[in-house]
Amino acid sequence: MKLDNIYQEEKKSNFAKVAEIIITMASRPSGFIGLSILIFHVVLAFISPYIAPYDFKAINPTLMLQAPSAEYWFGTDDLGRDVFTRTILGGRTALTITFFGSLIALLWGGLLGIFCGLVGGKTDDIVMRIVDAFLSIPWILAMLLIVSLLGTSTEVLIPALGFFYGKGIVRVARAATHDVIAKDFIVSARARGHSNFSIIWNEIIPNVRDAILVEGAMRWSWMLLGFSSLSFLGFGVSPPTPDWGLMISNARGLMSFAYWSVIAPIVGLSSLIIGINLTADAFAKALGIDRSTKAPV
Amino acid sequence: MLFLIIKRILLGLITLFIVSLITFVGTEILPGDACTTYLERQAFGEQLEACYRRLGLNVPAYERYISWAVNAIQGDFGYSLSGEMPIKEVLGPRIKNSLVLASAAIFIGIPIALILGIVTALWRDKLPDVAISTVTIFAMTIPEFISATLLILIIAIWLEWLPGIVIVPTDVSFLELLPNIILPVIAIAMIMTAHMARMVRSSVIQVMASEYVQMAILKGVPYWKMVFKHVLPNALLPAINVVALTIAWLLGGVVVTEVVFNYPGLGRLVIESISNRDLPTVQALAIILASIYVSINLLADLMTLMLNPRLKTLQIRK
Q1: What is the CATH number of the domain that holds B180?
Q2: Is A156 an 8 Å CB contact of chain B?
Q3: Within this chain, do residues B13 and B102 fall inside the same structural domain, yes or no?
Q4: Domain A37-57+70-287: which topology?
Q5: Do A140 and B256 touch (CB under 8 A)?
Q6: Cβ within 8 Å of residue A216, ≥6 positions away
Q7: Final residue in a domain of this structure, among B23, B46, B73
Q8: DSSP secondary-structure letter at B85?
Q9: B246 reaches A (C-beta below 8 A)
């Protein structure tokens, strides 16, 4: 046996593995487009405060609803604010909140799912019934209720989104755990007398990590959709914060004669969601996980 | 077989029971109750006491839950706070309107999704597939409120073909409703069709790659006969379940779409009752929407059971 080869495989650094996955993702046209859009938006979110030409909350009554011009590239909105400035700033809140929200969803959903898959029995039954029940409450109703009673601050939105988008991950993590649980290495770890914690950390997590990460990436795009829907309905971030959902809902009433102030945030939000979606898809394909037959629960 | 069906129905009922507990406890532990929001600044002393007595909030929580649950099973959800109207009467026409919207979208969406899914799968990676798949990715990822807003902008404002916003009373007759619902139906059907078409596509591709299809090709079975007789029946069966889950998942999108078009359905009632902090109505809505979700899933499971001969002989399925 060429044991040397096996060890060589192991020695690959984490960095090299990540680089390899990214290269595989970018080698498909859809993955390349998705990654480029996502990187563009992330870079924009970091540098936009420094390159924004105007103050996003500067109200100027003499400049109301100006059409796009050399001075105001995307025109101005109903309060005379520059639409270009607000559009490039509009993704920052959404990206930050949904990124940390997805991390929380990934953590609690993944760990609970692995735990349920491992212990099985009564505990598993009870937890899965509760998860089912939460799945059958439409997310929008639950989110609206929480937000309307607790307010729309970041400290409320991140855990609330993280909680509601994590319940689907529980199922995925549980199913992935079921796939590895019967394998010999788990049985032998049990025989060696390892604790549940050690089995989860050393044996299960390395094997289910890919499936959970892919699911988390997909959740990110849905969470962004949910967050923007909340903003659109007036239950998300509060004005004058520049946010695409909020901008669309404000500009919607006036779009019969000022369509530019609604088109700009629409392009921003749609491109970001498509970018994350394509990236998540390419990520799944690069890791060899097929999730196209799954329902978006 | 019968055992399986009964087990599925029982599981659904347990889920609904837990949903009712969650909504009840949820509205209970979150700060502020019906009376403090209703009375606002005057929420102290005599008036608060009187309000608690009037709404029956002075008895312990578990007693209130039991009486609420017993009434809810009989279809009586109590009174809404804002209108002082029985919730049952508020809900009736709203449910009808939302059902019209959703079923129109489903009946338009499913055949289109089937055709698109099958075409893209059979011409995999060829021009029809690439073109249709690109469009479906856009249709399924763009949020409902954006596609709805764009539809209004293009079809109602620029082309002036259809009314952009629904301005009808809640209890309008079906024929008057019809021209008003075309745009909302398109908005909902678009996302739903895109999701379903992708699932049908991957399901058909999976079956096409299976050994018995290869065998049929080798045996020289005519291509279209093979597709219709051997591939589709096996490919569409697993798709039923996934389609049901998608429809249920899109309930949230229906809420947003109804708000964009000002459509007098359940979705707008969700927003209205939450804005007014009308907790009794919110509880009723949670239970009703959850029941819709559970029954769609149940129906899909039963359909799969009925249509799949292999499962008929199976006694216990985990």
Answers
A1: 1.10.3720.10
A2: no
A3: no
A4: MetI-like fold (1.10.3720)
A5: yes
A6: A102, A103, A105, A106, A110, A169
A7: B73
A8: S
A9: yes
Question: How does pLDDT run across A153-164, given as a tens digit for each residue?
Answer: 888 888 888 988
From residue A158, alpha-carbon distances to A243, B26, B81, B216 in Å are 16, 18, 30, 53
- State the Cα–Cα distance between residues A74 and A268, nearest whole angstrom: 12
B228, part of any domain: yes
Q: Rounded to an integer, what distance in angstroms lies between the CA atom of residue B2 and that of residue B8?
A: 10
Confidence band of A147 (pLDDT split at 50, 70, 90): confident
Identify whether residues B150 and B191 lie together within a single domain. Answer: yes
| Domain shared by B133 and B6, yes or no | no
* Token pair belonging to B136: 């479906």
Structure tokens at A153: 């601050």
Which letter does DSSP use for residue B250 in this model? T
- Nearest CB partner across the interface for B143, out of A144, A228, A297: A228
Q: What is the pTM of this model?
A: 0.82
Are A233 and B259 inside 8 Å of each other by CB? yes
Asked whether residue B41 falls in the same domain as residue B128, the answer is no
Nearest to B248 by CA among B289, B285, B211, B282: B289
| Amino acid letter, B235 | A
> Can you give the residue ranges of every domain in chain A?
37-57+70-287
Digit-coded pLDDT (tens) for A10-68: 556 778 878 888 888 888 888 888 889 999 989 888 888 887 777 777 777 776 667 77
